[in-house]
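DUF484 domain-containing protein, Marinobacter zhejiangensis. C-alpha cells?
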Amino acid sequence: MTEQTARETAETLTHEAVAEYLREHPDFFLGQDELLRSLTLPHDSGRAISLVERQVHLFREQRDTLRRELVELVSIARHNDRLFEKSKRLLLHVIEADNLNDMAAAIDDSIRGDFGLDAASVIVFTDQPLAESPEGALQVVSPQEADERLGDLLAGDRAVCGQFRESERAFLFPDRDEPIASVALVPLRDNEVRGVFAIGSCQPGYFDENMGSLFLTYISDTLSRLLPSMMQRYCEPPLVMDVVAENS
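C-alpha cells:
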C-alpha cells in the first residue's frame, strides 16, 4: 500500500469505525508497545499523557465512583433499617392497644417521639357512635363528611404526600398552634375506606409527591387489618328499646 493509498484509506475511516474495531478487538494493543508509547492524550492539567496513564486515571475515577455509590447504598440501608425498627415498635404498641383512643395515642407518641415529626392523626369514618368519646389524635367523622372534606385524596390505596389545601390540613390536624405545612396521608381500607392515617410536618417541603411511601404503606396495611375489628368491638350497640321499636 502506497503512502497516498494509506492516507486515502485513513481519511475514509470514521471515529466510530475505529472505536467499533477496537471494541471488537480489545487485544489489539498486545505486542504494540511502540504504538502505545507513541499515543498521547490531553490531560486536565494541560500536559499530554500516555494511553496507559489515561487508562489508570479512568480506572481510578471508576473506583472512586463505585466507592461513593457503595457508601451511599450502605447509608440508605442503615436508614431503612432504622425506619423498619421504628415502624415495628409503632405496630407492636398499636396491636397492644385496648381501644381506638389508645391506638391513636400510640401512633401519635411514636410519630412525634420516635420519628421526630410534628403531628399524627387517625380519623375513623363511621355513622355509629363510639363507646368512648374520641380524644387526642383520634377523630370520628361520618363517611359523607370525610368525602366532602378530603374528596379525591381518598381515591387511591397508597400514600398521598404533599402540601395539600389549607382546609384539608385543618381538617386532618385541627386546633394546632403551629400549622402543619406538608402531609403524608394514607387511606385505611379493607373493602371500603374505613378511615385515614395522616402524618404532618411544619416544614413545607418535608413531604412531597415524589417521596417513597414503603414504610407508610407497611404501617397502613396493618392498621387497615386492625381497624374493622376494633371498631366493631368499641362501637356502641343499639339500645334494646330501639331494636324492639324497629321490629314492631
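The chain has two domains: 18-88, 97-234.
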